[in-house]
Write the structure tokens for this entry.
Amino acid sequence: MGELGAFIVLALVTLIPAVVVVTSHNIVRAAFSLVPSFLGVTGLYILLQAEFVAGIQVLIYVGAITVLLLFVIMLTEGGTGVRLRQVNEQVPLGAMAAVWLAFVIIVILTRTVWPVGAGSPPPYNATAIGNAFMTDYVLIFEATSLVLLVSLIGAIVTARGEE
Amino acid sequence: MHVGLMHYLILSALLFCTGLYGVVTRRNAVAILMGIELMLNAANINLVAFNRYVAPTAVGGQIFALVIITLAACEAAVGLALVLAAYRTLETTQVDEINIMKW
């Protein structure tokens, strides 16, 4: 019962700010609403016993990406005025598409029988994740590092402009 | 009642569709990026939930969730740099006004 209650609270903490993010007419309010939504996802990771992913989620999503979005909102004031129309003419169509897709996904999910594995997760899984990154998944690790470096340089070059 | 895999999958489907609605209906490029971040979070919930319920002794799902978080940071940095560059030349961040390559 306690687990279900925690899940429901975290699900509401995730979904209600997410709806504010996509519907608010004030874009700064939408950016700030991302924070409780990401923190709700963090709580879900802790509920799933993935503590390391939860920590990284707080550091990168709540700490870095939200601040980055707010910086760009502040730097491009021509597109963020409260009086500007923030949604295009596709609102009914988009709502229909989203509701239809959610319906289809949920129907498919409930009709599928998922395999259930036995066993319990490793007790402190940062060690297990580090070992896996350095042995089985080392190619993915290297490729991700390369993509991170390239995108860092690309972002600097793109945002700098001409001298 | 027990919290199972299905709860997380349905929550992630709802979060994904919320993000999709934001991507489809927003005019501001920064708000579209926010919708993309919500969709990436939905994918991450799926990965970690499958890791926990289908293969609890492995950490593959968490590894992929971490990779996706890293790539989301890359995507946000490059996307926002592009928004800044477009704003510098076109004085707007509304994607339906950035149409100089149309026809």
Observations:
- Chain B touches chain A through 75 residues (CB under 8 Å).
